[in-house]
Amino acid sequence: MTPLPTVDFGRRQLIVRRGSALALRAPWRSVWTLTALGVVAAVLAVVALGIGQYPISPGQVVAVVLGRDRSFAGVLVLQWRLPRIMVALLIGAALGISGAIFQALTRNPLGSPDVIGFDFGAYAGALTAIAVLGGGHLEIAVSAVVGGLLTAVVVYLLSYRNGLAGFRLIIVGIAVSAVLSSVCQWIVLKIKLHQAITASIWQQGSLSGMDWAQVVPVVGGLLVALAVLSVVGPQLPILQMGDDAAGALGVRPERVRLAYFVVGVLLIAVAAAAAGPISFVALAAPQLARRLTGAAGVGLTSAAVMGAFLLLASDLIALTIFAPTELPVGAVTVTLGGLYLVYLLVAQARRR
């Protein structure tokens, strides 16, 4: 019998088989890139765990994490500082996945949920909770999720015309976010001073004061999103080929697109509910990951790893750049993301 010819994928691949079935195929460049990002993120996490009014050496941090040090440093690391690191990694991964989903759906590197305006929806929901319900943490978190979801529904319905066009989604999202921005400013002017201060602090996006109770909802939101993604399957690259090609390959574009849309909104809403609207991580993470891995399109796994790395690095900068004064991490991501957005716009203009 003549053996079947092998497929040449153009670059060296990591292939994992489970019996005779193919379990995993990934380019080695992507594997090494993501491994390097994970190692650097682990180093940054160790450094961040040692920073504070009571400094701890990296060696002592490692000893605490491994259970070899049960001194007061263990309380500082495991109870006070580790939840912040975990939230940074989880929210960064959620923002990266959400950004990759919307950039793939719109087939535009500017198709990020913070550009489309879903974070303004979360902010409007949080402001409503602060003004009406008194501004407890649970009320703000739930209202932020509801606000983000309602904004997504409005943007989706206004953008849908015999299908969901990416450019139309971006334009409608920008218009809706402009309206919500005005509404938010009006609410801030009308509420009491202490409520306005609470709203201003939440709007900046901060990881300060995180504890293990705030880690649980973020983990729950991520698990729900991953469960939906596992049901939908890896069909996002097929959608990027266009509806005609996707339909020819047996994919129902509108149904799959709506499922990814809901997951992307859920992730951005969960992130905003936990730490406030943190901008530009969702915009930059998928594109930076795509460039480093050399992939043809955005990938969810690489975007998640890059998002976690970016937010952790930004939080470390927020902790140290003006120490002992701590900046909100949102201020750092806006600064870095603004520079990246300028670069992205200039790069697109040069291609034209």
TrEMBL record:
One of its GO terms (cellular component) is plasma membrane. GO terms for molecular function: transmembrane transporter activity. It is found in: Cell membrane. One of its GO terms (biological process) is siderophore-iron import into cell. The keyword Membrane applies. It is a multi-pass membrane protein. Keywords: Cell membrane, Membrane, Transmembrane, Transmembrane helix, Transport. The chain crosses the membrane at residues 31-51, 85-103, 115-133, 140-159, 165-189, 210-232, 258-285, 297-321, 327-346. Its main location: membrane. Pfam families: FecCD (PF01032). Belongs to the binding-protein-dependent transport system permease family. FecCD subfamily. This is Iron-enterobactin transporter permease. It comes from Mycolicibacterium madagascariense.
